[in-house]
Specification:
single chain, mainly alpha, about 100 residues
Length: about 100
C-alpha cells in the first residue's frame, strides 16, 4: 500500500507543479493562440500562387480552387480536392443555368 500512496503523492505533486508553472490566464492563452494563427495565415498569404485568388477564365475549361488543413497531409489533400470539385460543380451549374 505504501508504494501506491507514494506513486499517487508523486503524481499529485507533479500535477500541481505543472499547473502552478502556467502563469498565463485563459484569455492570455487564447490571445497567444490567435496570434499564432494570424502568423500562420500571413505566411500562407505570402506563399500562395497568383492564380489562387484569380483562377484562369478560359472558354475551354472550368477551374476550381480548393484548400484545406489537417495534421494528416493526405487528408488535407483529399479535403482540398473535394473543395475544388465543389467549386467546379458550382461554376458549372451557373454556366448551365445562364
Amino acid at each position: 500500500m505504501t508504494i501506491i500512496k507514494t506513486i499517487s503523492l508523486l503524481l499529485a505533486s507533479m500535477t500541481i507543479a505543472g499547473c502552478a508553472t502556467k502563469n498565463l490566464t485563459h484569455s492570455e492563452q487564447k490571445q497567444a493562440m490567435n496570434q499564432e494563427k494570424a502568423n500562420l495565415a500571413a505566411q500562407i498569404d505570402d506563399n500562395q500562387p497568383d492564380w489562387f485568388l484569380n483562377p484562369p477564365k478560359e472558354a475551354t475549361g472550368i477551374y476550381g480552387i480548393g484548400t484545406a488543413y489537417s495534421e494528416n497531409p493526405q487528408f488535407a489533400l483529399d479535403k482540398a480536392k473535394m473543395h475544388a470539385f465543389e467549386d467546379i460543380a458550382s461554376t458549372y451549374a451557373q454556366k448551365v443555368s445562364s
